[in-house]
Specification:
CATH class of the largest domain in chain B: Alpha Beta
Structural class of chain A: alpha+beta
Helix content of chain B: 40-55%
Number of strands of chain B: 11
Oligomer: heterodimer
Order of helices and strands of chain B: EEHEEEHEHHHHHHEHEEHEEHHHH
Largest sheet of chain A: 7 strands, mixed
CATH architecture of the largest domain in chain B: 3-Layer(aba) Sandwich
Shape of chain A: globular
Distance between the termini of chain A: 78 Å
Radius of gyration of chain B: 29 Å
CATH topology of the largest domain in chain B: Rossmann fold
Shape of chain B: flat
Number of helices of chain B: 14
Distance between the termini of chain B: 27 Å
Number of helices of chain A: 20
Chain lengths: 646, 455
């Protein structure tokens, strides 16, 4: 049956309305491309499949950057956030993270409204059954399961967990990328036919309990921040009423129940072959791997004000329903709990992201981009970051502009993309601050300084956001100058205040900056000592200034490392470079280089398993070729035989 | 970024086949010409006039060695098939008679049939590229090849065996562990089984590690003495008897001796062995304040030689009442041993214990022993201790020690954990540059260009 061709024609077609797809669709349309979003279920646009929360260590950094670029995730979070919590507050500013638990339905509704009201963006429901490719193998659009062909110049595929997906609840299996939804079974094969390498991943989710069946009095309350700051920098205060979160723990009895039924767990019985996320283990993993632990913490997160469903975080599982219920009821406070939706595991195809280039394009299929969990990541934030990158890349291709670049030294988005396309990885990728070798530069507090100008240049950042940003930047300039000049003299009053902080006394006149550098001192405790021109600045600005002071020496050293890395990045490698022609490369080195196809020496140096010697061999080869091409090679008299040179 | 020096400006591609004599100083009984690269077996087969299939791995085969114009010599050919060779590539060695003509003939033949002359250190560089050696081992190879003393040989062999690399790995591992501990608190603080960091405990561990690094860095002094040898300068007023003692120490009439003061104008050196160590004895011009131009030049050289030495023998004429010169040797410079000379001209009664006569064997031996003791003090390490052998290695370890100490300080002062992590990462980078895990090109160039051709 030949497809019916929809008369429309789009520049960018996004497949899948999840977190990656939404950001990609919005980015493309906001930059002026005619964009189409085709998704299996319009009701599930922006759906949180698992934990109804945005942010966390590492993840908040991505969200702050998405926000700084003009992406949507943070803004929508503030319209749906019901519990804001700062993590790592006692640690340094480079790792502060704001985690926001959301009303799941409010989040999806808010995101959907943004998309539905976005000019240049059309939405259609349908499962994409295949990519529509022309004779050269380049993308022409997609064909839906209804037999409709949509024509587009570029396609951004954000299939999430839906490719050849199977859900496992105990011994029961059903096809589907999420409980109650279908799978896309042919796309994966079509990609493989085009030579794309895929592998199998798995992820799991936790059971949802009925709020009315929980004995809340027995649980520990975990209140949110009293006066929560919005996640979006330039955003409105959180719109919804705030709620508390609660904590419980498993018991040895819980573990016994799980252990007794472990043979019925698809993970352990071998029913699921895929690799799971190491940092989000199932309760089966936790119990079997850490038998000495008597309990594991569980968090109970109500999924919204308009639902009684409570997400039981920490109990990700695919054990059979009877075991899940028995295990849940061993927990104090949950003795009478009812499960509304059972936890389950989903097994799905992902592609090996080393086949993508640094703009998330798949060179094997010109015009095709891949973003999100389909590339082997886990997490909404990781998906959204890739969505923006792919969306902007597709737009650049369509508009004939140069591709935006995302250096590792400038953003966690850059770290994420580079880790994926250079290293790949066998298990689902989650962002951590330790992945960033330039972590001290990449703080949530300076995300706007790093990325908002880029977002503006690309057309994503609107006037209002830009105005707020420029005001912030000029406050910072004013503050830095004031800070450089401010001095403190040890009068009786000032000495009293300083000593009250418990960080020592003042021995003589001191620069204010030096006082504020004391690690245990908070500027808020000595605000009475700050000059007016600094106190007048917004708190956020003073926080940022103090952080700059504390990091000063380290940031300078980091700059040297960045400079060294950048030098390596100036030596580019051709996409079709013949590595076999370079003598001295081992077979393994050739295989690694051919698999990743690094774009420059810097990326080559990051390929895991590539030795310094191999890198050197490539560098020499490039340099000789360059000098030959420049005609600057002079034949050198070879050393005569028998000469000994010291 | 300077990728590499002019030495590689012609066809420096590694897929060339290189040839060079591996032995030195022709004429000799036997010389070895070595080929390495993709064409080594083919060229070797033509030279040995054997089919390639008959070039069995590691089998010495006797026969004619040929060039394009005919037979050049007879000798042995042995092939080493990749990767089981020094360079990891195919290697052929031709063992021939060690005359310059034969060696040149064989090298010419190899070049005619497709090889090119190897550059200094190129064989060893290929070995490094193939991952057969790390940089410490490459440097050790250089030391072993140029070893002139037992101490140098032992040290080089220890490094070649990987003892230095192991020592650095043992310093690197705790850094990785420390970083992992800190990172766990940064990225997983909310997991319930990650407790708070005991900063003092972590800091103590880092402080100990930094001390170990500093101690190891300090052994480079000993290493350089053992591998590079020591310099001992004889210094003193004119006619103090320096050249006489010099000749006695060297055991030959190297220096011109005359009773007239100012005989020695220039610096005269001679090498010898002192126990396990190689030493270079340096005779200098007599030092005095008033002098003519030529003499002044000689005196300037004497000062320079003394300052550049490890030990200075300051000789004073025992037969003269007053020493006319002041100390002109920097106080923090070399060790100074003072001797009064010409004991043979004094009666026994007036002879202090440090007076020697260069004509008495026992006295000369006593001087040698005193120098040996001084060198042992300078060395400061046990004979079988692992020592570093180069300033480069010591500098890297000192950087690592500084960064580790900085991390310790940051921890102790309560700084946020991402800061000591950055310090410890700097320390690891410093160590990695020593072993060559990270290899800045100027370092590589400096190392490999010091090899002779054929190595």
């Amino acid at each position: 049956m030949s497809p019916w061709h929809h008369p429309g024609a789009w520049d960018v077609l996004v497949v899948g309305g999840g977190h990656a797809g939404c950001e990609a669709a919005l980015a493309a349309s906001r930059c002026g491309s005619r964009t189409l979003l085709v998704t299996q279920s319009v009701d599930r646009i922006g759906w949180m499949s698992c934990n109804p929360a945005i942010g966390g260590v590492g993840k908040s950094h991505l969200v702050a950057e998405i926000d700084a670029l003009g992406g949507e995730m943070a803004r929508v979070t503030d319209r749906a956030g019901v519990h804001y919590k700062w993590l790592n507050r006692s640690r340094g500013p480079a790792v502060h993270a704001l985690r926001v638990q959301c009303d799941k339905l409010a989040y999806a509704t808010a995101m959907r409204m943004v998309l539905e009201n976005q000019p240049s963006l059309d939405i259609k429901q349908g499962t994409v059954a295949q990519l529509w490719l022309d004779d050269t193998g380049a993308v022409r659009g997609v064909i839906s399961g209804h037999g409709v062909a949509y024509s587009a110049r570029t396609v951004v595929l954000t299939a999430g967990t839906f490719l050849a997906a199977v859900c496992h609840t105990g011994e029961a299996q059903e096809a589907g990328g999420r409980a109650g939804e279908g799978a896309a079974n042919d796309l994966g094969q079509q990609l493989r036919d085009a030579g794309v390498r895929t592998r199998r991943h798995k992820t799991g989710t936790c059971p949802r309990l009925d709020h009315r069946t929980i004995d809340w009095a027995q649980l520990t309350v975990d209140p949110g921040e009293k006066d929560p700051t919005p996640l979006a920098r330039h955003g409105a205060r959180p719109a919804l009423a705030q709620m508390d979160c609660h904590a419980a723990s498993t018991t040895p009895e819980t573990h016994a129940v799980i252990r007794a039924a472990i043979h019925r767990s698809p993970l352990f019985s071998g029913q699921i072959g895929g690799a799971g996320p190491r940092y989000c283990p199932s309760i089966e993993d936790k119990v079997m791997r850490y038998p000495q632990r008597e309990s594991h913490v569980l968090y109970l997160e109500r999924e919204g004000w308009q639902t009684q469903e409570v997400y039981l975080s920490g109990l990700s599982t695919s054990l059979p329903p009877d075991v899940q219920l028995a295990a849940v009821r061993t927990v104090a406070g949950l003795e009478q709990a009812e499960i509304v939706r059972f936890g389950y595991a989903v097994e799905y195809d992902t592609i090996d992201p080393t086949q993508l280039d640094s703009s998330l394009a798949l060179p094997a299929v010109p015009g095709l981009y891949l973003a999100g969990q389909v590339n082997g990541t886990s997490g909404y934030e990781e998906a959204a970051a890739q969505g923006i990158v792919a969306g902007l890349a597709a737009v650049a291709l369509v508009q004939g502009r140069s591709q935006p670049v995302w250096p590792r030294s400038e953003s966690y988005i850059g770290v994420l993309v580079d880790d994926l396309v250079t290293r790949g990885g066998d298990e689902p990728y989650r962002m951590f601050t330790s992945r960033a070798e330039h972590r001290l530069r990449l703080r949530t507090g300076n995300a706007d300084l790093r990325l908002t100008p880029t977002g503006r240049a690309l057309g994503l950042v609107g006037d209002r956001q830009m105005a707020i940003f420029e005001a912030h930047r000029s406050h910072l300039d004013v503050g830095r100058r004031a800070m450089a000049e401010a001095r403190l003299t040890p009068t009786e009053a000032t000495l009293g205040h300083v000593e009250a902080t418990g960080t020592g006394t003042l021995r003589g006149p001191v620069r204010l900056a030096d006082l504020l550098k004391r690690p245990d001192l908070s500027w808020r405790d000595v605000r009475m000592l700050l000059p007016d021109n600094i106190l007048a600045l917004p708190e956020r600005v003073i926080d940022e200034l103090v952080t700059e002071l504390r990091y000063a020496g380290y940031v300078d050293r980091e700059k040297l490392r960045v400079a060294r890395a950048q030098r390596a990045e100036t030596v580019t490698l051709a996409a079709d470079m013949d590595y076999r022609a370079i003598g001295g490369l081992s077979a393994e080195a050739i295989e690694l280089l051919e698999r990743v196809r690094p774009k420059d020496l810097g990326q080559a140096g990051r390929i895991p398993g590539l030795t310094a010697g191999a890198l050197e061999a490539v560098a020499i080869h490039i340099e000789v070729r360059r000098r030959r091409a420049a005609g600057s090679l002079t034949p050198k008299n070879p050393a005569s035989h028998g000469d000994q040179q010291a | 970024m300077r990728l590499f020096s002019e030495a590689h400006s012609d066809s420096g591609l590694q897929n060339d086949t290189i040839v060079a004599p591996a032995t030195a100083d022709q004429p000799a009984g036997v010389a070895i010409v070595r080929l390495s690269g993709p064409g080594a077996l083919a060229i070797g087969a033509r030279i040995a006039a054997r089919p390639i299939a008959r070039l069995t791995h590691a089998l010495l085969q006797f026969g004619g060695l040929h060039g394009p114009s005919g037979r050049l010599d007879q000798g042995y050919a042995v092939a080493f098939h990749a990767p089981r060779s020094f360079t990891g590539e195919d290697v052929v060695e031709l063992h021939c008679h060690g005359s310059p003509a034969v060696v040149r003939g064989i090298c010419d033949a190899a070049e005619a049939w497709g090889a090119r002359p190897a550059r200094a250190g190129e064989f060893t560089r290929r070995a490094w590229l193939a991952g057969k050696l790390d940089l410490l081992q490459a440097e050790a190879l250089l030391d072993l090849v140029s070893a002139r003393s037992e101490a140098g040989r032992k040290q080089a062999l220890a490094h070649l065996d990987g003892r230095a690399s192991d020592a650095l790995a043992a310093l690197r591992r705790p850094l990785i562990d420390a970083i992992a501990d800190l990172e766990a608190r940064l990225d997983f603080a909310n997991e319930d089984d990650v407790d708070d960091l005991d900063r003092d405990h972590a800091c103590d561990g880092l402080r100990r590690l930094a001390d170990q690094m500093t101690t190891l860095a300090a052994t480079a002094r000993a290493g350089q003495l053992r591998v590079g040898g020591a310099r001992i300068a004889l210094y003193g007023a004119p006619n103090a008897g320096k050249s006489t003692l010099f000749n006695a120490l060297v055991g030959a009439d190297r220096a011109l001796v005359h009773h007239q003061p100012g005989t020695t104008r220039d610096v005269v050196e001679a090498e010898g062995l002192l126990g396990d160590l190689r030493v270079t004895w340096v005779d200098t011009a007599g030092v005095r304040t008033a002098a003519g131009d030529v003499e002044a030049a000689g005196i300037a050289r004497a000062h320079a030689a003394a300052a550049a030495s490890d030990v200075v023998l300051w000789l004073v004429d025992g037969a003269v009442a007053h020493d006319p010169i002041d100390a002109l040797i920097p106080p923090d410079g070399p060790m100074v041993l003072r001797f009064s000379t010409k004991a043979d001209l004094l009666g026994d009664a007036r002879r202090p214990s440090t007076t020697i006569s260069a004509f008495r064997d026992a006295d000369v031996q006593a001087v040698r022993q005193a120098v040996a003791a001084a060198l042992a003090t300078l060395d400061g390490c046990r004979a079988d201790a692992l020592v570093l052998t180069r300033g480069r290695q010591a500098a890297g370890l000192r950087l690592a020690a500084v960064a580790t100490a900085r991390g310790c300080e940051a921890l102790r002062s309560g700084a946020p954990l991402e800061l000591p992590v950055a310090d410890l990462r700097d320390a690891i980078d410093a160590i990695d540059e020593v072993t060559g895990r990270i290899a800045p090109d100027d370092v590589l160039e400096a190392i490999f260009s010091r090899f002779c051709v054929g190595k």
